[in-house]
Amino acid sequence: MARTVKDxxxxxxxxxxxxxxxxxxxxxxxxxxxxxxxxxxxxxGLAYHYFDSKQALFDAAIEEYARQxxxxxxxxxxxxxxxxxxxxxxxxxxxxxxxxxxxxDFFHASEHGALHERLSLGICxxxxxxxxxxxxxxxxxxxxxxxxxxxxxxxLVYGSIGLASDGHELGEQTRRAARRYVAALMKxxxxxxxxxx
Length: 197
Known about the structure:
The chain has 2 domains: about 50 residues, Orthogonal Bundle (Arc Repressor Mutant, subunit A); about 130 residues, Orthogonal Bundle (Tetracycline Repressor, domain 2). Helices cover about 75% and strands about 0% of the residues. It contains 9 helices and no strands. Helix 8 packs antiparallel against helix 9. GO terms for molecular function: DNA-binding transcription factor activity; transcription cis-regulatory region binding. InterPro entries: DNA-bd_HTH_TetR-type_CS, Homeodomain-like_sf, HTH-type_TetR-like_transc_reg, HTH_TetR. Keywords: DNA-binding, Transcription, Transcription regulation. This is TetR family transcriptional regulator.
């Protein structure tokens, strides 16, 4: 049978996707690098070429999953056909839907609190620059400076992840209150820009 040669980065991503699925289904203790290689249909030596230990594989799988989760938000904030308010609404909706995160049950399990915090932080760190850029673009279209864009992006991202991190669907009352506070922050951000502009 002919060997399938793939781009090394594509192969690495496949191994990470397989590893994340297995870790979420079976738990850290019940998964090995060999098991991931077997499930991915590659030789164990190839898996060890990319990851020298189970811990390295696990760490990389969580980082890749955080990157993938963040990518969805970043693509919303990069969509210039949407207003900033529309982007914020879409991002908020995405962040409050558990089905948008395939391994939510794994990360929300009580015994995985530290992993959940690590994942949340990784998502926030990846999304914050995209939201900062969207805030700066919004200010620029209004002919205003955006001196506090990075600070506001941090408040919005880290505050929102806190709402989504409790492991339960948000009730409509909580969603309305959160949107009200975001609207108030946006109003103040724009008002400050007008004063400094």
